[in-house]
Amino acid sequence: MGIIDDIKLRYNQGGMLLRLIYINIGVFLLLHVASIIAWLFGVEEAKVLLWVETPSRLGELVYRPWTVITYCFSHYELLHILFNLLWLYWLGRIFLEFFTAKHLSGLYILGGIGGAVLYVLAYNCLPALIVQRGYLIGASASVIAIVVAVATYVPNYKIGLLFLGDVSLKWIAVAMVIMSLLGIGASNTGGDIAHLGGALVGFWFAYSFKRGRDITRWINASLDGLMSLFRRKRSAGVGQPTGGTAYHDNRRNQSEPTEADLDRVLDKIRRSGYSSLTDDERDILFRASQKR
Q1: pTM
Q2: What span, in angstroms and rounded, lies between the C-alpha atoms of 118 and 110?
Q3: What is the 3-class SS of the chain, one letter each residue?
Q4: Residues 54, 28, 173: CA angle, nearest 5 degrees
Q5: Tens digit of each residue's pLDDT (9 = 90 or more) over 30-43
Q6: For the chain, what are the domain ranges?
């Protein structure tokens, strides 16, 4: 339990970037454990992956629509997850210098969706791919969305690369897109098509953001709604009255938040996003919204 508690603590205290990395590692380990158990009972590992991979055929996708999101948190090969998470960590840190944690999580998911959409469209519209059957897995489309977004927003931002020295982000993004284009028709055609979908979403995000529009807003609003629903259900199941005792919301017995408290919470949201708030800070925000 000590190790589990330590992991929980690091996850809760870590920022959104580390949380995304932890989720990917956790899913990677769960998939391997599930595959081992399946093998012991004579089930092929491919049948385990079917629950998280995005299928190319619409007939399969309609029965597993959640896979357009789960695939971008899933890996099965060690080198695949290693390279994706290294890119996510390096470029994610730069991304957070200009955007919030909520932008990072929203773009990660939206980039994955964009990659899955282009992948499915290609396999159902292009004559060379219609006859084929594929499954998409890995965070590459999400990672490339983040790379292209920050490269579009600050194209001349330089990072040091081994043997190459300082290189502008725009050239890194261009190189990744070109490699994906050249990879179409090779062994990872579906993956390279998904990379291009993620790149398009990343460019769209940065282009729109410069003009005052946040295309990840609806995703973050949906996530906040789900989290609020989950918290309400969890709180409803804890401390329920017995013997006819009436239940009272503890928030009603707390003092009203001051303007200074509210300003502090709002400033933290602007700097780090809503997900960085503690439970007490979220409670302050809730009580302030009720008062207003």
Answers
A1: 0.77
A2: 12
A3: CHHHHHHHHHHHHCCHHHHHHHHHHHHHHHHHHHHHHHHHCCCCHHHHHCCCCEECCHHHHCCCCCHHHHHHHCCCCHHHHHHHHHHHHHHHHHHCCCCCHHHHHHHHHHHHHHHHHHHHHHHHHCHHHHCCCCEECCCHHHHHHHHHHHHHHCCCCEEEECCCEEEEHHHHHHHHHHHHHHHCCCCCHHHHHHHHHHHHHHHHHHHHHHCCCCCCHHHHHHHHHHHHHHHHHHHHCCCCCCCCCCCCCHHHHCCCCCHHHHHHHHHHHHHHCHHHCCHHHHHHHHHHHHHC
A4: 65
A5: 999 999 999 999 88
A6: 2-210, 250-292
Class of domain 2-210: mainly alpha
What's the one-letter identity of residue 147?
V
Task: Label the pairing between strands 158-161 and 165-168.
Answer: antiparallel
pLDDT at 214 over 80: yes
pLDDT in tens, 217-267: 998 888 888 877 777 776 666 554 444 433 334 444 455 667 677 777 777
**pLDDT, tens only, 104-147:** 999 999 999 999 999 999 999 999 999 899 999 999 999 999 99
Q: Are 201 and 114 in contact (CB under 8 A)?
A: yes
- How far is Cα 221 from Cα 209, in angstroms, rounded to an integer? 17
**pLDDT recorded at residue 243:** 44
Structure tokens given for 108? 């990660």
Cβ atoms of 144 and 108 within 8 Å: the answer is no
